[in-house]
Amino acid sequence: MRFYILLITIIFQFASAELNENDYYKLPKLYDMDDYKLCEIKGQPYQYCIFEINLIPISTNTSSVLWNLIQENNADKLKFRRDVLEMGRCIQVGNETDLEFHKNIFKAKFEQDELSVLMKKVQCKKFEIKPFDYLDITAIVILGLIFLSVIISTLIDKNMPDLRKTSFALKCVLCWSLIKNVKQLTTIKNSRDF
Fold it and tell me: Where are the beta strands (DSSP E) in the chain?
């Protein structure tokens, strides 16, 4: 029984219409997206728009090589349709000419292959300035306290070197001293047991 299933699978594999590698790379990309994170970093004057594009032949008796490849690919139900594409672009908010510019680019890209572009859906996401949350503020406070303790301990160590051996609390403060730490990092120990 397993042999028959394997044989049927192999027959279907070879019987299905396969594109060769060169023809496959001529097909349009399913997704052609700009960098979303870069658009988000640009901030509020920009929005990220996703265009859903349907490719259709300009005329019914077209001799377009690309359209024939797309039809051949679409005949195989296990493959993605190549006549429905998604393209994402970073566009300035309120700039309708920019939106039309990208639509015209898509049209010009496929007109050379005798294909027409039909825009089905355009979804745009505007970016908002994100306020600081409590984790950001906590991290800033902790880093500020560390920086402040390094400066204070370095000043105490430089101006009052005789206080180094007094109390345990002062020794804890002086452990942040840049002078003391740089001296310990650059000193070569003479001891042979490491």
Answer: 31-33, 46-57, 84-92, 115-126
